[in-house]
Every structure is written in C-alpha cells, then in structure tokens.
Specification:
The complex is a heterodimer of chains A (about 525) and B (about 475). By secondary structure, chain A is mainly α. Chain A has a domain of about 160 residues. Chain A is built from 15 helices and 4 strands. Chain B has about 475 residues and is mainly α. Chain B has one domain. In chain B, about 70% of the residues lie in helices and about 5% in strands. Chain B is built from 15 helices and 3 strands. The mean pLDDT of chain B is about 90. The chains are: A mainly alpha (about 525), B mainly alpha (about 475). Chains A and B meet through α2, α3, α8, α9 and α10 of A and α2, α4, α9, α10 and α12 of B.
C-alpha cells in the first residue's frame, strides 16, 4: 500500500511545475558554482606551484645556516571545491622562524591581488546544496497533507483500507523518490565537471569523502522533508503551511548563521591584534636591549677592543648574518654572541607565544561558541559536517598549524643536535684559517690593496651553497576516511536524531489530524 | 474606491498568519541584533581607544628626533563608525588600514583580525542586513499570491464585478504591502533605538536621526522593488504556487547568486595583473636604480649628518620610493576600477543596490575608504611641508630629504602636540547624496520597469 501511494505521488510530482523549476534551478546553479570553485582552486594550485618552487629555490641558495629558514607552503585541498570552509579566509604560506611561533599563515588568498574584493562573499557547492535542497524539499513537502485535505482526497483514501501510518509513509517515500534524483543529479553534475577537468585529481579518499557527503545530504534532505510534513500536519491550509515552511527556511539558512556569528562575537570577545602586537614588540625591544648589553659585556670579556667590522656583511630578520673579510677576533665575537643569542631568542619566542596563544585561544573560543549556537539550525550542522569531510574545518586548520609548529621544533632540534648555531658556517662561508688575526692585520701596511689581501676577501657567491639534504622537510599529515568519519560522526548523529524527532512529531500530529 | 480596497487589504494582512509569524521573527532578529551590537560596540570602541593611546605613546618616543617622526611608518586604522547599527557596510572586510609617513602614503590593507578568520564569513545583524535579507523575503511572501491567490479563491472576479478599475486594484495591493512591511520596519527600528537609547552606547543626535529617516526612506523604496516584483510574479501566472516559485528564484538570484559570485566575475570580466607581477616589476626597477646609482650611494655615517655621500643616499632612496610609488599607485587605480566595475555589475541585484545606497548615504564602506585614502594623500603633503619648514630653520641639518632614514635632516626634538595628526573628515550630506544618486537612479529604473511590466500583464489578466 505504501508503495502504491509513493508511486502515485512520485508520478504526480514528476510532472509538476515545481519539479521542473527545481530541476532547472539545480541545472543552472550547481554547474556554475562548481565552475567558480574550480576556477578558484586552480588559481590556488597555480599559486602553490609557483610559491613552493620559490621556497625551494630560496632555501637551496643559502650559504650560511643563519639564513636557513624554510617556508612551508600549504597544498590546496581539492575538496575545498565542494566545501571551502575557512580555507578562503587564510593564506597559504608559513615562514619558519626561530624567534616567533607561526600563528596564522600569510600569502595567497582568493582576493590577494585586490584586497577590495574581500568585501564580496563567495559560495561553494555545499552551501548551494544546503540552500537548494532544503528549499526544494520544503516546496514539495508543505502540502503533502494539507493539499489532500483541501482536495478532499484524503477522506477518500482513509475511508479505504489505508491506515494513517501507511498513508504518511507512502507520502514520505513518494517525496524521497521525487527528490533523490534531484540530489543525485546535483552530485553527478558536480562530479562530472571534476572528472572532465584534467587539472584536478581526486584520490580514493577524496571520492570517499564525497560519497559520505552525499549520504549526509540525504539525511539533510530528509530533515527538511519531515519538517515540511510536520508543518503540513499542524495546519489546515496549504497557504499557511507554505508560509511557515518558508519562514523556517529563511530562519535556518540565512538568519541563524548570521545570528550565531554575530552573537558569538559579542559574547566571546577578542582583543585587537594590533594591541597584542604592541606587547609583543615590547618583548622584541627587551631582547635587542639585552643583545646590546651582551655585546658590550662580551667585548669587555675579550679584552675590550675587539674590532667588530665586516668587510662584506648582510643582516636580516631572525638573526640572519652573513659576512666575509674580517678578523679572527670579530669572528669569535660573532660566534660567542650566537651562543648566547640562540637560546635567548628561543626563550623570547616562547614568551611571545604565550601572548599569541592567548589571542588564538580567544579566537577559538569565539568560534566554538559560534558552532554551538549554530546547532539550532540543521543547515549549519550540515555545513559543519561537510567542512569536516572536506578537511576545511577549523579543527583541520588547528591540526595543520600544530604540525607546522611541530616542524619548527624539529628544525630547531636539527640545528641544536648538529650544533649548527655555534659553528662558523652559521654566518660565514670562510674557514677559520682564512681570517687574519688582529696581529697579522696590524703588521700590514694599511693600503687598500694590502687590506684586501690580508682580509682575504673572497666574493661570497664563489662558494658552494649549503648541502641541505638532511634538513628535515615538512610533511602534511593525510587524514584517513575513517578518522574523518569519526570526526563527523557526532554531527551525523545529531542530524539523525533530529530526523527521528521530526518523524515522531509528524506521526503524532498526523494521528490527531482532522481530515475533514 | 482605492481607499476602501487599501484599508481592506491592510486589515487582511494584519490578521494573517504570515504577518504574525514574520512580525515575531523580525522583532526577535532586531532585538538579538541590537543587543549584540550594544554589547560589542563598547568593546570595539575601547579597543580602538587603547590602540590610539598606544599609538600616541609611540609617537611621543619618536618625538625626540623630528626626522624619526617624519620617516617612520604610521598606520591609520579606520575608526568604528557611530552608525554601524544602521548598516556596517562591510567595513571590517574592506581595506581598513592605511600606512603612511611624511613622504608617502604607502599602502592599504585589510587587518587580518578585523574579522576572526576562524569564523565563517557572515554579515552583521545590522538594520540594513535585516531589511535586505529578511524583509525582502517577507515582502515577496506577502505579494506572491496577491492576484493569483485571489483568483484561486474566486474573489478576484467578484471584486471586478464592482466598479473597480484595474489600476486602483493593483495600486491598493502595492500600497498595502509596502505599508505593512514598512510598518514592520519602523516598529523594529523603534525597538532597536529604544534598546540603544537605554544602553547609551551610541549618541543619538540630529545627524543620527537624519540618517535613520534617510535609511527608512531608502528601505521603503527597496521594499517597493520587491513588492512590485512579487505582484509581477503574481500576475504572470494563473497559480499562486508557480508565482511563489518565480518569486523565490528571483530572491535567490538577488540575495545569493549574484552577490556571492562577484569575485569570479571580477576576475573574468575585469582582470588586473597579479600582485606578484607588480612586485617583480618594482624589484626590477629598484635593482636598476641601485645599479645605476653613483658610487657611494649606500654609504652612511651616523654621527655626521653633513657626510657628503648622504646626499647621494637621500637621492637614491627618494628615487627608490618614487619608483615604488609609481608602480603601486597605478596598480591601486586598477584595483579601484576593478572593484567599481564589479559593483556596477552586481547592481543587477536590488539587494546590492540597496546596500550601496545605504553605504553612500551613511558615508561608510568603500566610499569612506576612498575618501580617507585621498584625504590622507593631502594630509601627507601638509605633513611633509610642516617637516620641511622646521627642518629649514635648523642649521645643523643639510636638508637632504631621505624618505626612509633620519640621517641627513634635522634631528631636533619636537613636542608631541605640534606634530600634525590626521583626522578623518566625515563626508557631508551633500557629498553623500551625490554618491548615492547613481545607485538611486538604478533602483528607480528597476521599480519603473517592473511596475510597467506588472501593469501590462495585469491589464491582460484573465480574471476567470
């Protein structure tokens, strides 16, 4: 019996205007969204290729260890085509430094070339599916019960042998049968565009994620079908039912996300980073003061008249120093300074990190609060789940940044284990013997040519760059389909629970429904 | 006759379920939005005040050497606006920091923390947002079955059996929808204002009241667009559920599809060179300048301002700055054009029209940024002149102006009070009207076209 009702509804729906409009809407919007996202992804991919090559070139050209600070370039996530999550808000590059911890990546974002475009929002496949599927589900479900009553066919059906339960389930099945092809069509269309594009390659895990996403979308669709049916069973007239359904729709899809974000911003407050920066630069100043103090102290220890002059020197951030052509005493001075500087800089990085960590924690607690408030909307739960499945959620970002910070520790350990920071190669390509001592220098006549000879100034670029084969490289951890499934399980359970609740509600209210 | 119809329509709407439910939701959103605004605005303001204070402290330290004051980079952060509750104009997403010194206005950027990057992007619950997203939707819900619904209820033929002209019928429908939704807006705003007044977080003065009245007028116009479209969808079909679908599609395109695909259109229709290529061009030219600079252009001797090579150094640095400035300014112009063109493109959506009119009227968002950007350029010239005047009086300075270093200009201390400070000039109402006139015309044309189409179809509507 259920099957009969379902079949009848399915055939009726298939010929309706709303089916055609819904279908056409999907046909227009889904490919367009995917094309926009693919375009975006390819730009990211292009930028990734250029930048990782740049990073590798830059690294391999270094001659001294003080310049060796690898840059981690994030590989764009192919699944971000389906759900971009927060990936659009963040850059793709992290420069490893010893004097600071990486907090947020910098570099390429969608609007890198023109920050003004930042004011425009963007949309992705999961959001479009969330909007369209819920809308179509409601538009189909709102009159399942009321229309039959208004047409008087319900009385007719229920006078026969059809029980109310089988009537209800028949209707439900009919709706699922009608909507499932639309949903399937959306996914197939999206996948087709991906497959046909030779520049994108999805791994088996990625396809697994998409299959899971499809499953979630089905739950999501079911929730809205049931919501529509519940509303339909609560009111008498179709015109009231559609209004209530659509108000629910705009509330869940458009108001709730904004309410949750705005509310969380006003409850969990974050400081202005510029103000945090001031506290950080206080530490930096303190460090430089200590550095100067130590230099003087060291000068005194070394006899009081060390001539710290380099013939050819470059300096830069994070303790970068490269020189050639100086005296043995100056070299020793630089080395001794480095022995002091290395642990001190790391120490200050830790101090600064306390401030940064606090800032990050505040950001995170704001985000957690937003997610919690957003639980009142099924579409937001759906969004959060798809973000998890597409590795673009905040947790994924957190894990990623954690692994980058761990990589920084690994590099530091590599420097410490090999005692690189106290070696001469930390700041010069010349060997100890190539530097004259003060005495040797004093013996020279003082003419420019003589100075050259004595200081044995050799252009730095005649030296071989460092061999960095053993330097640890950053490797991003790949999430398995099971870990993803486990992460998404909680939210999936909530969605299923919600579905069951709605189903029970519908059954209960339909049982009492006045069919006259 | 039109009056009777109008009153009848209003009564019908006021007693309808859709009015009751949407009114409740609207009140809820207004209250939540305003409370959130009130609670965050104090925080935003105190953060900003703290920032200003720290900035003044830095300036006080630099004041021991006037050249440091002139050469060190300063950031101007766009201050929180008083009327953000009306519409925030996406100021937290648009460029909101401008970096400058006495020699140049260097660059602008979006502060990465002006919006928590870990949050999904969303708009603030300002009045503008509530009107543009929620009330536009409500309007369509009120209007979609205005004609086709009556036809289905068989009341339409009845109405026209009396001596009612079609124009009067359509006019009363339109007016009643605008009245009801407008009433909702006004009540929401009054409620919101009450909460603001009680909390005292925003000073409610004449200009603020004027802005509110203007906002209301703009909102009414905006509601008109959607009610006309709703009526239009209602007269082109025979069934109300089809007209509902047409209305929903229109709303989806106006609210979701067009605004959210702008970046794509910007890149495809109005492409500009990549930032990377500009950086390359700059570093290439800088390299050339350095290569061609006379010997000793990088020599310096801190203790002796008159060290002759300082003049070469100052020249070289000035050349470097000018080269960079030329490239960047040209690129910025391209950015502005790309952004403006994209905005013109999005004017297809009435929601975008509404947002831009509001923005212009409130003196916020992009127009505010552009005003600050050009005002800062003027300020920078005055600032440099001030510095040069003081420097000219100093005999210990060789007057070789170096935009990045304090080597060869006056090193005298200066009192902090004397240092010119940039003050944002809020655009006067006359300018704002000028800004918004273009957008306003587009909106009026939209209304006119839709209304004519609506009337055309209604005259031919089959009443049976």
């Amino acid at each position: 019996m259920i099957w009969l009702i379902a079949k009848k509804d399915f055939l009726l729906n298939l010929l309706s205007v709303r089916f055609i409009i819904g279908f056409v809407l999907c046909l227009v919007i889904i490919p367009f969204t995917i094309i926009v996202s693919v375009d975006d992804y390819l730009a990211k991919q292009n930028s990734y290729e250029i930048e990782s090559k740049q990073a590798a070139d830059e690294l391999s050209g270094h001659r001294v260890w003080s310049a060796v600070r690898p840059t981690v370039v994030t590989k764009p996530e192919p699944l971000s085509i389906f759900s971009s999550g927060i990936s659009a808000n963040l850059g793709n590059r992290v420069k490893i430094a010893f004097d600071t911890y990486p907090l947020f990546p910098t570099g390429h974002t969608v609007t890198q070339d023109n920050p003004l475009l930042n004011a425009f929002f963007s949309i992705d496949f999961s959001r479009v599916v969330a909007i369209l599927i819920s809308l179509i589900a409601l538009v189909f479900a709102y009159d399942t019960i009321t229309r039959e009553r208004e047409d008087g066919t319900m009385k007719l059906s229920l006078t026969g042998q059809v029980s109310r339960i089988s009537f209800l389930f028949g209707k439900l099945l009919g709706l699922i049968l009608t909507l499932l092809p639309i949903l399937l069509f959306c996914y197939l269309l999206a996948c087709l565009i991906i497959i046909l594009n030779p520049a994108i390659s999805f791994s088996a895990t990625d396809w697994g994620s998409i299959a899971l996403m499809f499953l979630i979308s089905m739950f999501y669709m079911l929730i809205f079908i049931l919501l529509g049916m519940l509303i339909s069973s609560l009111v008498k007239r179709s015109s009231s039912s559609i209004i209530l359904s659509l108000l629910c729709w705009i509330w869940f899809l458009f108001l709730m996300p904004n309410i949750s974000t705005y509310l969380s911003q006003s409850i969990a407050k974050t400081p202005l980073y510029d103000n945090v920066q001031v506290a950080i630069s206080e530490y930096e100043k303190e460090f430089y003061e200590k550095d100067e103090e130590r230099q003087k102290q060291l000068n005194d220890e070394m006899g009081g008249d060390v001539w710290v002059v380099y013939w050819n020197a470059n300096m830069g951030r994070d303790g970068f120093l490269e020189f050639s052509g100086t005296l043995k005493e100056a070299v020793e001075h630089a080395r001794q300074m480095q022995v002091w500087k290395w642990p001190t800089a790391l120490d200050y990085a830790d101090k600064k990190w306390v401030l940064q960590r606090d800032y990050l924690d505040k950001m995170l607690s704001q985000q957690r609060l937003q997610q919690t408030i957003a639980f009142f909307s099924p579409s937001e739960i759906f969004r959060q789940t798809t973000e998890i499945l597409c590795h673009t959620s905040v947790d994924d970002f957190q894990k990623y940044m954690e692994s980058v910070r761990n990589y920084r520790e690994t590099v530091i350990r590599y420097f410490a284990d090999n005692k690189l920071y106290e070696s001469l190669r930390y700041f010069t390509v010349q060997t100890w013997d190539q530097f004259p001592s003060q005495k040797e220098f004093d013996r020279s006549s003082g003419s420019i040519e003589d100075l050259f000879t004595v200081l044995r100034k050799i252009p730095a670029d005649q030296y071989e760059p460092l061999n960095l084969d053993n330097l640890p490289r950053f490797e991003a951890r790949q999430a398995t389909i099971f870990s993803m499934f486990a992460d998404a399980l909680g939210r999936m359970a909530v969605m299923i629970g919600l579905g069951i609740l709605l189903l029970l509600g519908t059954i209960l209210s339909f049982m009492r429904y006045d069919v006259r | 006759m039109i009056k009777t119809l109008y009153i009848h329509e209003i009564q019908k709407y006021l007693y309808s379920l859709r009015f009751k439910v949407s009114f409740a939701i609207m009140l809820l959103v207004f209250v939540v939005g305003t409370i959130s605004f009130v609670s965050s605005t104090k925080d935003v303001q105190s953060n900003y005040a703290k920032y200003r204070q720290l900035e003044q402290e830095t300036l006080a330290k630099q004041a021991s050497n006037i050249s440091d004051v002139a050469t060190s980079r300063r950031n101007y952060i766009i201050a929180p606006r008083n009327n953000t509750v009306v519409a925030d104009c996406k100021e937290s997403l648009l460029p909101n920091r401008i970096s400058y010194n006495a020699y140049n206005v260097h660059s602008f950027d979006v502060r990465h923390d002006s919006v928590n990057p870990l949050l999904t992007r969303s708009e603030n619950l300002s009045w503008g947002f509530i009107v543009s997203m929620f009330l536009s939707f409500i309007t369509l819900l009120f209007a979609f079955d205005a004609v086709s619904g009556e036809k289905e209820d068989r009341t339409l033929a009845l109405v026209f059996s009396n001596s009612v002209s079609r124009a009067a019928f359509l006019g009363s429908k339109l007016l009643s929808i605008i009245t009801v939704v407008g009433l909702m807006t006004i009540i929401g705003i009054i409620l919101s204002l009450l909460i603001i007044a009680i909390s005292g977080s925003v000073v409610i003065d004449t200009s603020f009241m004027l802005e509110i009245i203007g906002f209301l007028a703009i909102s009414l116009l905006f509601i008109t667009v959607f009610s006309v479209f709703g009526l239009f969808s209602s007269v082109v079909t025979r069934y109300s559920n089809v007209s509902l679908l047409i209305s929903l599609c229109f709303w989806l395109f106006a609210a979701v599809i067009i605004p959210n695909t702008s970046v794509f259109w910007a890149k495809k229709l109005f492409p500009i060179p990549t930032g990377r290529s500009i950086e390359q061009a700059i570093s290439q030219e800088k390299e050339d300048i350095n290569k061609n600079a006379p010997e000793g252009s990088w020599a310096s001797m801190w203790n002796d301002p008159f060290y002759p090579k300082h003049e070469l150094r100052a020249n070289n640095q000035t050349n470097l700055m000018n080269a960079e400035k030329r490239h960047r300014n040209a690129y910025y112009q391209q950015m502005f054009r790309q952004f403006e063109n994209t905005r013109s493109f999005t004017l297809l959506s009435p929601i975008a029209q509404f947002d831009y009119i509001n923005e212009a009227f409130l003196g916020g968002g992009y127009l505010r940024f552009r005003k600050n950007w050009s005002d800062l350029h003027m300020f920078q010239e005055q600032f440099l002149q001030w510095f040069k005047d003081i420097d000219a009086k100093d005999d210990e300075s060789p007057h070789w102006y170096n935009p990045y270093e304090s080597l060869s200009t006056s090193r005298k201390p200066v009192s902090v009070e004397q240092i010119p400070q940039y003050q944002e000039q809020i655009a006067p109402f006359a300018d704002r009207f000028l800004f918004m006139s273009g957008y306003l015309i587009v909106m009026l044309i939209t209304i006119a076209v839709l209304f004519i189409a609506c009337f055309y179809f209604f005259v031919r509507y089959d009443m049976r």
